[in-house]
Amino acid sequence: MDNLAFQDIIQYAPWILVAFLFFKQNRMFVTPEMLQQEQQRLYEKIETKFVQKEVHNIAITELKADISDMKEKIDQIYNKVLGID
Predict the structure, then answer these.
(1) How confident is the model at residue 33 (pLDDT cuts 50, 70, 90)?
(2) Whose C-alpha in 65, 72, 75, 76 is 20 to 30 A from the C-alpha of 49?
């Protein structure tokens, strides 16, 4: 039984070697260090392209406050022009 399994391994060894070299060349298997480096690179890229949700919410709140201030000032200008005040 062991002899038969060993013969099968020897028979398919060139194909196994070709498959292994293909996977290694195309980097389908990575080390934990390579994975960590790629993850760090992705985090840096994301930080430069996207804004955090908390910062976005603060900016939207400030923008809404500014718009409401502008509406009040425009209303005051209309009131002055129309002579209501």
Answers:
(1) very high
(2) 65
